[in-house]
Design a protein that fits this description.
heterodimer; A: about 240 residues; alpha/beta; Rossmann fold; 4-stranded antiparallel beta sheet; 10 strands; about 25% strand; globular; B: about 400 residues; 2 domains; about 15% strand
Chain lengths: ~240, ~400
């Protein structure tokens, strides 16, 4: 069982190499130690090629570290098989991507339901209600039956946030969530994530290039050449 | 979303509907394949049933005759064989020994549906100074008609033989200018004094659908033939019908071994026909197989493209907690759906083809070439095979979808 009181995320000496055993072997992450406490609202910044995406994938259980430990809600992920990792990912982590990535064959509400449906297997009325509640939280209740592909970028990103919240995950990983939006929509989306963080205590780790945005978070974690450099706690 | 359908089925349907043009083309492809298989199989079944019918309507399943007469060498020592020539004797017309006992034995067997004793031999049908060679067959009408339904083949007169009646074929009737009610003399190689010359009245004229048979076959009451052929109380053949004609060869073999008679099945008699039919079936199955392969490749290629197109969505689903198994089943369900819908549409199309065939493929006189029947089992089997094919061909794309690394998939 996951601990409800310890840190949401703990990395201990996480290293990641690619092309292992070939002349092209490169280590991208050189021993990352990181702890994210419950309710933190953090930004992860760093230049291109610094290892941001690799780190995010490892934290999101989409990739495995070459060495080191990764604990999600106190649960050691080392040695978990693919099915167990998938289950842990589904329950503990929500994703928001730059290109929102809704499933175009489903409506907005159905997209929000998707993590619940994947978890239980069969749809039910409670899932539907939860999805509609989440959509109204992000101000899209009127759009619930719209096909995902018929919405604007800002709207789709809000649906994606609602979807990330469906399983009430402890941690939401957002990869450039506003990178593809105009300023107004970007501000809306950011404000929404902040509100969820405050109201529900969900931990956020937001990867961004936008320093202005990063400055509005509580903590900025900078990654340079595969090593972490804690910058500062924002306001 | 229906609460009774699992995620896999819902997603498979949505994906198929979203890519409806692609799905429709694949389903049409599968349907055409299925319809061809159904139409060809029905046609073949029709042709073969027709041929069997024609063969079996003029032929008993098993014909029992006396064992062949063999000449015995005078000397029996092997050392003398190189100087002894054993000449095969000409086969005389003989009766089956103890034929009543054999009939009783046959009637006790559960798979035997009819037994009819007949006596058959060579004779001449004589009218004025014309003498046509014929095969004279003496029958017991009631039993014989259960094996060869002459009643159905009568074109004029009746099949009900009177004691002095004779049934002749259309060709013989035409050659001799016979009509029903006219007299016809039949002569054998027995002398007139010993009953080798009798006059009959034509009771009926039949058409066996075969020129030779219509020219040579004549049927008279058993007793009359016995006296004409000099076989009082004897019979030359026993015609036997079985509940399953395809077991004829096995049963014939058993009879040969157990009864010391010569028993020949219709399968042996018409071996060439059988070989031809088997070849036809093999050719048909080969075509069906390749049609199946073509359909399978069609379904598979569309699903492979679909996996590539949806790789990003698959990645997102995996990130959201979809197991590899779920992803695999989504694509397997798509394959099965294409196969199933394709086979339903293909069955309807196949029925359409069969109906068209029945409407347009007709003899000059407007009758059907041969009857094609719709076989429910064929539809069921084809549907099942098509659905299985859909699932099997989806295996590869489904596996590649399940194996997608979510990171690579999302990055595209």
């Amino acid at each position: 069982m996951a601990e409800r009181n310890g840190p949401v995320l703990k990395l201990e000496g996480v290293r990641k190499s690619f092309n292992i055993g070939t002349p092209a072997e490169t280590e991208v992450l050189h021993g990352i130690d990181l702890v994210l406490e419950r309710g933190e609202f953090c930004a992860l910044i760093g230049p291109s090629g610094s290892g941001k995406s690799t780190l995010l994938n490892i934290i999101g259980l989409l990739d495995r570290p070459t060495s080191g430990r990764l604990l999600i809600e106190g649960k050691d992920t080392q040695g978990l098989d693919d099915a167990a990792q998938t289950r842990l990912r589904g329950h503990s982590i929500g994703f928001v991507f730059q290109y929102h990535h809704l499933i175009s064959a489903f409506s907005a509400a159905e997209n929000v339901m998707m993590p619940l449906l994947l978890d239980r297997g069969f749809p039910n009325a409670a899932m539907r209600t939860r999805a509609e509640d989440l959509l109204s939280e992000v101000g899209l209740e009127k759009w619930k039956n719209n096909p995902a592909s018929h919405m604007s970028g800002g709207q789709q990103q809000r649906v994606a946030i609602a979807r990330a919240l469906a399983m009430k995950p402890a941690l939401i990983l957002a990869d450039e969530p506003t990178g593809n939006l105009d300023t107004k929509s970007a501000d809306d989306v950011f404000a929404m994530m902040r509100r969820v963080n405050v109201e529900q205590g969900t931990t956020f780790l937001i990867v961004t290039h936008n320093m202005e945005l990063a400055a509005q978070t509580d903590r900025i974690i900078e990654i340079v050449d595969g090593r972490l450099r804690e910058s500062h706690g924002a306001a | 979303m229906s609460p009774f359908l699992p995620f896999e089925v819902i997603a498979a349907f949505r994906f198929l509907v979203e890519g409806r043009r692609q799905s429709l083309l694949t389903i049409i492809g599968a349907a055409v394949g299925v319809s061809v298989v159904i139409f060809m199989a029905s046609l073949l079944a029709g042709v073969q049933a027709n041929i069997f019918n024609r063969v079996l309507s003029t032929q008993a399943h098993i014909v029992i005759s006396p064992p062949e007469e063999e000449a015995l060498p005078v000397r029996k020592h092997e050392a003398d064989l190189d100087i002894a020539l054993v000449q095969k004797p000409a086969q005389r017309l003989r009766s089956i020994d103890q034929w009543q006992a054999i009939v009783a034995n046959l009637r006790k067997r559960p798979n035997v549906t009819a037994v009819s004793p007949t006596v058959a031999g060579a004779a001449f049908a004589v009218l004025g100074d014309v003498a046509n060679p014929v095969t004279l067959t003496g029958i017991e009408p009631a039993g014989f008609f259960r094996i060869i339904d002459l009643k159905e083949k009568i074109v004029s007169g009746t099949a009900d033989l009177t004691p002095e009646g004779i049934l002749v074929g259309t060709k013989l009737a035409a050659d001799l200018g016979l009509t029903v009610g006219e007299k016809l003399r039949v002569r054998t190689n027995k002398s007139a004094d010993s009953g080798g010359d009798q006059t009959f009245v034509v009771d009926g004229i039949f058409d066996l659908g075969n020129r030779d048979a219509n020219e040579r076959s004549t049927y008279v009451p058993l007793r009359a033939a016995q006296s004409l052929l000099g076989l009082s109380g004897g019979i030359t053949t026993l015609s036997v019908n079985l509940d399953d004609p395809y077991t004829a060869e096995t049963v014939a073999e058993d009879l040969r071994n157990s009864l010391d008679v010569n028993a020949e099945s219709w399968i042996k008699t018409f071996e060439q026909v059988f070989t031809a039919l088997r070849t036809q079936s093999t050719a048909n199955y080969t075509i069906q197989f390749f049609v199946g392969v073509a359909v399978a490749l069609g379904i598979s290629s569309v699903l492979v493209v679909s996996v590539v197109q949806r790789s990003r969505e698959i990645g997102i689903l995996r990130a959201m907690g979809a197991s590899r198994g779920r992803i695999r089943r989504v694509f397997l369900t798509q394959g099965a759906t294409i196969g199933l819908v394709g086979s339903i549409a293909g069955s309807l199309l196949g029925i359409g083809f069969i109906v068209l065939w029945r409407l347009f493929a007709r003899n000059p006189d407007g009758t059907e070439f041969f009857p094609i029947t719709l076989q429910p089992m064929l539809f069921l089997r084809t549907g099942l095979i098509a659905t299985m094919t859909g699932v099997l061909t989806a295996l590869l794309p489904a596996q590649s979808a399940a194996r997608l690394n979510p990171v690579d998939a999302i990055r595209g």
